[in-house]
Protein 1
Amino acid sequence: MSVPPSARSLVVRDATPEDAPALAALLAELGYPTPPDVVAARLAALVGAGDRALVAVDGSEALGLLTVHVTPVLHRPTAVGRLTALVVAERARGRGVGRALVAAGERALAARGCALIEVTSNRRRTDAHAFYERLGYTGTSLRFAKTLAPEGLRAGCDTGVRLPAEPGPTAPARSMR
Ligand SMILES: CC(C)(COP(=O)(O)OP(=O)(O)OC[C@H]1O[C@@H](n2cnc3c(N)ncnc32)[C@H](O)[C@@H]1OP(=O)(O)O)[C@@H](O)C(=O)NCCC(=O)NCCS
């Protein structure tokens, strides 16, 4: 049984590769089971792209994770900040860990010039919706999502999904229809 975090002992810091096993456990709680080595590779890519992964720790115990992203846009005067993943270990929920993570994420995004912060949350996560509203977020939009075919994934970004290799130069050309 874990000791509840106190306000004094909770620290929010940038995640490191050594955190990968703990982050993998947190992502599994979020519903995204991911092997630690894949988490480590994705963390490196995420940080390399300028995003932040913040981890809330009590002593050596990782209790929560928040990743944040800055989206430059043309239609607003400032970039838009996005909370891209948030989870607190079930054993530590309801004790201010999520609030501390979001506060740190907001500071990080404000420092990058974001005047608006948004988050997407699945309709079924009603507890999370109440949490965000408590923190001052308002439900304003609907999200429309589409899963791309593998070709679209390959042409886009590396999500960690391993796809079959592209056909080499000797492969027969495919006709376009
Ligand atoms: C949502 C989640 C991140 C909240 O983290 P948490 O550490 O439990 O939240 P906190 O203890 O920091 O709560 C902050 C405030 O929100 C309120 N709150 C949290 N959950 C709530 C709920 N289900 N209903 C109403 N209020 C809630 C708290 O009462 C607290 O208010 P207060 O500080 O004024 O007392 C956490 O429950 C979680 O990981 N859930 C599962 C994963 C998930 O849904 N992630 C979000 C995906 S979009």
Protein 2
Amino acid sequence: MPAAPGKKKRRVNVRTPEVMERVQAEVANHYESSIVEKVRAAGGVISIGKTTVHLAKQFGFCYGVERAIDLAYASRRVFPDNRIFLIGEIIHNPEVNRQLEEMNIVSLPWQAMNEQYDDLTEDDVVIVPAFGAPISFMDKVESQGCMTVDTTCGDVMKVWKRVRGFAKAGVTSIIHGKADHEETRATASRAAGDDGKGHYLIVLTLDDVDYVCRYLVEGGDRGEFLERFSGATSEGFDPDQHLVELGVANQTTMLKSETEEIQNRVRKALELRDGHAENFSVFDTICGATQERQDALFELLKKEMDMLLVVGGYNSSNTTHLVEIGEKELPTFFIRSADCLISLEEIIHFDLHEKTEINSTSKILSQEESVIVGITAGASCPSNLIEDAILKVFELRGISGDQVSAA
Ligand code: SF4
């Protein structure tokens, strides 16, 4: 039977030393790679015959993701016989999510609550993912009396603190992010403030921002504005009333350069409208791990390379931005795993522009002369998948796994 509503928070600590020792060994066994560590130690390059692979200096699991996975594994160890649920996905990586499914950790819908939430009981454990969850979901889980294991990343919580502060001060949050991304949904719920009366507007593209800026300076069609940003504003948002004082924050995994451009454009529009920038506040909330991976890719791109492989889940925001950076410089393929490298000339990959997985023909790997391949991965990609990609590149070029291990 579900517990009566209004139960107290039951956050549980699953990080006991004995449990963590076992969990860390399991996690290492599932996701670490000796080959990746070896290449890292060799300065990020492995070269055999006419084939060279360069790894970015920073890639793969970030501290927030490592912590979330550890806590999910620990939950199963501490509660071997309880039902364990997860709000959505722990992170955006199919391999990691598959492992959790095997541990009988059941994913609940994150877009909207359904009857599964009504069926939760005091004996159930609910894991909150690294992205966090909207306040309404947290309230529901708590009202069912469940035990919660909260893996929300500290960097995401820093953004929540900022937007809560904006709401308290009567400032509308402009959130740079994807309106249908778990983290942005969670952040937006905090931007409404503790009393729920605060306002926010989610913008994704520079086009969105230019539209908002024109509205700030010249006014415009209110109905059209609300239609354009349908699903991306707080309840009761009115562009004629709630665009007076603005604070910009961002989803932690956005492209740094784009976020800065958005800040500049909003500031300039307010200066133009008001004659000063006093109605503008900003806090850069891109997380350190996202920044490091973007910076490391810029460094990697200074090397001479024929192609770039970006490994990761197609719904991973920070991975997507790595692809965008790479595409500007050289042929770039966004692959979910080494299996996407079908043959020397056939690659299955995600096309960001078509928003779908496609099958492409490329002669880069099949060329007789030397081939140099760059590889990077987002914060949600485990090292074992990166190892698979390295091995597959060499294998397709006629170089065995044993040769790679011995190199
Ligand atoms: S990408 Fe950044 S915000 Fe997301 S889990 Fe990793 S460290 Fe935290």
